Amino acid sequence: MSPLCDCCGEHVNKLNQQISVMRKEIKNLRQMLDSAVRGHRKHMIAIQSAVSKIGLCEPDKDQTPPPCSPAASPQAALEQGNIQTLPIGYITSCFSVKTGTPRQPTICGPSRAELRIQQSVFNNPEHALVGLEQYSHVWIIFLFHKNGHLSYKAKVKPPRLNGQRVGVYSTRSPHRPNALGLTLARLDRIVGDTIHLSNIDMIAGTPVLDIKPYIPEYDNPDSRMSSDETTDILNLQKDCDDQSGLKLESSDDDDDDDDFCSFLSTDKSKADISVTDSSQLVSAQFSLHKDLNDVLEEVEAYVTQRDLCQLSCAREDEVSHSPKTKPPDATVDHPCYGEEAYSTIAGWIRQPPVSSLEVRFTPQAERELADFLPKHLSGPSESDRPRFKFLRSPEEAAAAIRGVLSADPRSVYRRTRCRDRLFFFTLDTADITCWFGQGFAEVLQVRPVEQHIASM
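Given the sequence above, the corresponding structure tokens read:
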């Protein structure tokens, strides 16, 4: 058999690489099929158990079933946790597809979105937003409607861990038993029934289930700790004032306590000078003909017995204010968190195996990006130039692109196994083409989005 030439050898190598890629894809498809089969089995088991329960609860034919109240069924479903969700609105975002969308809201600050409350939920949607303009941030509870399937696993591979497996509840993976998402967005303004948001990580068409205002005093553990410390200081000052008031009242009722307090508050340097006066005062009030030493001993014994409880209470208060001891519940009107107020997170959040990337722009990409105009600018000579819908300037678009690419939006598979280094994503009305190198990402091209995507 004659040896292969160089051209045939290269062709064979390419075919072997393609076969290797196809084998990996087939393996991935098999894993997806297995997970889908497991999910189907779980659903079938749930349906069978529900049918069996209905069969056990079915009344006899001879007995006439009691009339069902229309409100009883929803109430029972609510008590069991079975509710039917109703989106209050749908997101209109600068991200139209999943690819390139930030995984967290703080990654891309200039990202913007709009949420219009549906009139099917409220007859007057703008009434539901009265007072929300007083807050700077809001919690958005939404659905991951683009998961593609309902299957989920107990362990997942977050992209920031570069393939390491952790429990699904220690991550923010969208593939969960209940595909609910939570994001903290900046509230820019409210116009009628529409909320304008920024710092978002949701794509266009995301169903929103609820909105809640962000309150640092309740939602931020550090703020709760500082407020608790301030309240404890105020309570301590109030207790001291109350104790001093009680001492004043007791001094008015009992003249003996006044003498005892005068003995305690007297400095040693003044004790020798006022010995004669104090002994005369004690002898005048008690009519006791004893020498000064006997009187002082009696005073010391009495004060020691009287203030024993106060001293022990003061020690307990000092211990309760230490960071390692839980304060008694009766001393405060609200929960005191102590060390629990300081939040802790997993180490890989701050120091992930995947480092941030440097983002570059080619001169051609910079020129193409500078050709875009904001939506609010218009003119007869600029009608043919591409226009942003959410972003306010090409500089803001460049900052958004840097935020998206610096966090490396690629999946673990594309990052470690895929030989194709090109990456495409959509930002507002621009299609971005870039490629990834060792520690950097470079934007090659910025073109207006295609018409069918822009109309979505």
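The two ends are 59 Å apart (CA to CA). Try to locate this feature in the token string yourself.
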